[in-house]
Specification:
By secondary structure, the chain is of the alpha+beta class. It has 8 helices and 14 strands.
Amino acid sequence: MDEFQGIPDLLHEASLEGLQWKATDRTLRIFFDCLRSSVDDSEEIDSAVELRFLNVSQFAFYYSPGDDSVRPSEIDFEAHFAKADPANWDGQSSKAFLYLNSRTAQYEWETASYRRWIYQVEGDIDSPLHVAINLSFANYDEESLEENIFITCDAIQPISGGKPLTLEKWNQQYRAWWEGYSHYWDNRAEESDEDDDDEEEDSESSEFFYEQIPAESAELDPLNYEPPDKPPFQIGPTDAPAELLRPIEDYHTGMLQHDWHKVRTASPQLDDREDITEEEIEESCLDENLGSWYYIRQIDSWWEEGRRACVVARGIEHSMPDAEDPAENRETVITYGLRELDGRWVIWSMKYGWPEFGSAEEACEEPEWKKEWE
């Protein structure tokens, strides 16, 4: 099924415009607005592409809270979908992300809070293609729902203008769109350069940027920087189960010790390649924290429901210095969305907030542990 592996990339920045389900021949048609341009003047195309899923064996919608801090039991899914008929869904356009035979998407399906089955064939399921389509929502408040489509089928047929669209042709059209995008901005830059005032302003801005941020500096390299030598996880009494706290401690300990295996065990990336190198894992881990390290000092709250859990912890974020600012310590609150995976708990998501900026609640009392950072 390697011929289908390029479809997710071709749907970059695509929007789902609608779908049609035909149970009689087990065909699901999903319509996308995506990035395409004509390769030459001999063709006229629009941006619409239909993906036709053939010989569907399973088709369902599945939902979870959009915010991992929300308990699934707090949402009345039945009432929310009482009148909806998704079989001929023609709702508001939504950004769509398609996953094909993805372990991450499969796990999201297995741990979903609510499923709405549209079709399921009787007997054993042996379809080779497992598809998940994530529909992004407009806001991320506590009432948001993460909506996804789950499909298993035998084949996927791209269609454009009522005719089959080969992946080779689609890929050419996708590249043509990006080439046009690049040419557009190149032309804008050339027009800007013709204005002497703009040219002078751009030059001054560019000089300032390079003066402030050297291209190469060992002091600004997270691998060479030494953050405070303090315990990354040192909390007071709590009733939070040790098994929920273990991945949090391992994650932050691994980040300080450059133990990338410990970091990835605590917060796995299920779709990593089997041949991923240590250097690639290291780069990925460092990118996650962007020059910051975290020292957990207290647990504010926690809950556990089935294979989902949440821990809200409070501590200090230490940010390394940059070309303009010195190193800084700031109180931070981290919300960990946890999942039970293969008999152990792992970090599935992390959300950061700072009382100083109003994105997290202040502690009821000034914590004693903050004194060590003054």
